[in-house]
Amino acid sequence: MANQDKVPVRLGRVPETLLWNLYHRAYEARQPRTVLHDPKAIELVDRLDFPFEETFGPPHPLLAQGQGLRVRSFDGAVRDFLAEHPTGTVVNLAEGLETQFWRVDNGRAHWLCVELPETAELRRSLLPDTERRRILARSVLDLSWRDEVDPGRGVLITAQGLLMYLRPGEVRELIAACAERFRGGSLVFDAVPRWLSAGTQRAETRPSRSYVMPAMPWGLNAGELQKVRTAHPAVVEVRELHLPRGRGPYFGALTPVLYRLPGVRNLRPTMTAIARFA
Ligand SMILES: C[S@@+](CC[C@H](N)C(=O)[O-])C[C@H]1O[C@@H](n2cnc3c(N)ncnc32)[C@H](O)[C@@H]1O
């Protein structure tokens, strides 16, 4: 694609993390035995005028596969929801340039993205709204987004790669606000462990030589997942969603075993979970 046809990108530190995710998702999607079929992510990376490699360093194959597997666990939760509520609403908090809609849409569901204005503008320029898929340019902490959701057809909220960038009190309030309003609904989210959250706040944390991750003020260990239930009485169940099996020694053989070893579960750099509201 000629450079003048490309879409320029200027994002702040935290919004820019969506490009790290997209870059690695697309890299994983290009692998011959990929764990994630995601041609739309590849298309988006090719459309953006952004120095991915200069900014983030060369793609990291293990992190990219981990990213693909994490995305697959979110997709699985959305597919399960749509199987039960085919016309329901999937609310993607902080959707970035996620391309989940193109992986799992059933042709009848409704999709609402709640994003910061700068990210919403970029997303809209690449992936314009349709009748069933809308973007709201607003912080997830402005709880008025809840008024835009029809609760009647079933609601699933996803927060992928979001909560770690919020403060602990904000996370608690956001979960409580979802539970309070969307009884019968669920929230799928991911969390980083406390050691990683503390590390990003103490010193520069570099997943590659050229890139420093923004601070992640909220961390939650896998061993303390049940604390999420204390956010609101309507949170009646919280459980971890295990990553699907991947390729190679780490994601093919070791990760499934790690889930069975309580001593190391808090060391895993990310955890995906679902909270159910009643
Ligand atoms: C790591 S990216 C995740 C993007 C996408 N969910 C994914 O997994 O690729 C973090 C996202 O959080 C969004 N974000 C951060 N704070 C937010 C807030 N208060 N309200 C809405 N979005 C927010 C950023 O704009 C960015 O898109």
UniProtKB/TrEMBL annotation:
Keywords per UniProt: Methyltransferase, Transferase
Task: Write the Enzyme Commission number(s) for this entry.
Answer: 2.1.1.-
The record's annotation in SUPFAM superfamilies points to: S-adenosyl-L-methionine-dependent methyltransferases
Going by the record, the broad EC class of this enzyme is transferase
Q: Which Pfam families match?
A: LCM (PF04072)
UniProt GO MF annotations: methyltransferase activity
Look up the domain of life of the source.
Bacteria
The GO biological-process annotations, alphabetized, read as: methylation
Q: What is this protein called?
A: Class I SAM-dependent methyltransferase
Q: Organism classification, top ranks?
A: Bacteria, Bacillati, Actinomycetota, Actinomycetes, Kitasatosporales
